[in-house]
């Protein structure tokens, strides 16, 4: 069983405000396809199964989630381990970032970690671009 460490994951959209302060920040904007470009997904969020499916089936996403979980565990293993914050960001904060935040939280919980997830911008309107 892992040592108890406060882990917070915050999803956000770069187009709404500056990234939150975090130990690890994942910028998902450039390397991973944005579901926003699909009209059928644009007005959905990570709370909708089709969005989560599209994001999690993107090549590289599950590898990134696993690598980030390993990084969080490394931070938690340090001699001065304390609370850990991970920020996951995409353009609008409605698709990629919250999906990755939820997947990372699930991965960490399976490893016995207690995790809090906050979606800073999930409730915001779709950014027209």
TrEMBL record:
It holds the Pfam family PapZ_C. InterPro entries: RapZ-like, RapZ_C. Residues 6-123 form the RapZ C-terminal domain. GO terms for molecular function: ATP binding. This is Nucleotide-binding protein. It comes from Streptomyces noursei (Streptomyces albulus).
